[in-house]
Design a protein that fits this description.
This protein has 249 residues and is an alpha+beta fold. It contains 8 helices and 11 strands. β4 and β5 form a beta hairpin.
């Protein structure tokens, strides 16, 4: 990746809906639980209903985990807070863990009723967020919390959110991406590579053209390094660490 791209620091933005939230108290909690990288966006946070939120949450895969109570919370909210966190790649893991802790704190003590990540367009139910916060020391929980997948863009499937973990996102280019009977296969492959990129030190030494397979007897794929040209570098989804694209060997 070029210097301009790697100098961009990903920004965590959490959209928090609530009922009777005290924004002054929320700000204190965000700083106390999150730490020095965290703040409340006072310019965008409001003690009022935002009628756009039902559609916004629906666009963030909320239906995968939302209950009727979660949808009611979105419809009935009377306040919106935006939590921000930003730091370099070396702080990404810590920031993502603390953002889960902040989420749990706001749910349990400060009137939060629904939450979505603006930075990966991903929402979870209240119960799911709390379960992920309890498991925040597990890499799988961080990826489930912050990484949206699979997303279809013409002839590739891709992820969004690995920038929040300090790692490249993943693309998959293959025949049969629209075959619903193979969706589990594609998700397993994408998850295998995102897990490797997130947790293995060797991932930093991958070179363009290397092979990847889920197991010794699994199909071999070729890795191609891509810059992030899907989004401009000032977009919240922009990944300064680029993509690794899986292509058939």
């Amino acid at each position: 990746m070029d210097d301009q791209q790697t100098s961009v620091q990903p920004l965590h933005v959490l959209c928090v809906l609530g009922s009777g939230m005290d924004l002054d108290g929320v700000e204190l909690a965000v700083r106390a639980i999150g730490g020095p990288f965290f703040s409340l966006d006072r310019d965008e946070s409001r003690a009022e209903h935002d009628p756009r939120m039902p559609d916004a949450f629906a666009a963030c895969l909320a239906e995968l985990t939302f209950t009727d109570a979660d949808w009611d919370a979105v419809a009935d909210h009377d306040s919106v807070a935006y939590v921000l966190a930003k730091g370099g790649q070396e702080h990404a893991e810590h920031i993502s863990e603390r953002m889960l802790a902040v989420t749990a704190e706001l749910f349990e003590r400060w009137g939060a009723t629904a939450v979505k990540s603006e930075s990966s367009a991903l929402a979870h139910s209240r119960d799911t967020w709390l379960a992920l916060a309890d498991a925040a020391d597990a890499p799988e929980a961080l990826r489930q919390a912050w990484v949206k997948r699979p997303i279809l863009d013409e002839d590739v499937l891709y992820t969004c959110g690995m920038h929040l973990l300090g790692a490249p996102d993943v693309e998959l280019q293959a025949d049969g991406l629209l075959d619903v009977n193979r969706q589990g296969e594609w998700v397993e492959l994408i998850d295998g590579l995102t897990g490797y990129l997130h947790t293995e030190a060797r991932a930093a030494q991958i070179r363009d053209g290397e092979g990847f397979r889920l197991a010794e007897d699994a199909p071999r794929w070729v890795l191609r390094q891509q810059t992030c040209d899907r989004y401009p570098d000032d977009d919240i989804f922009f990944n300064p660490y680029g993509y690794w694209r899986l292509t058939p060997a």
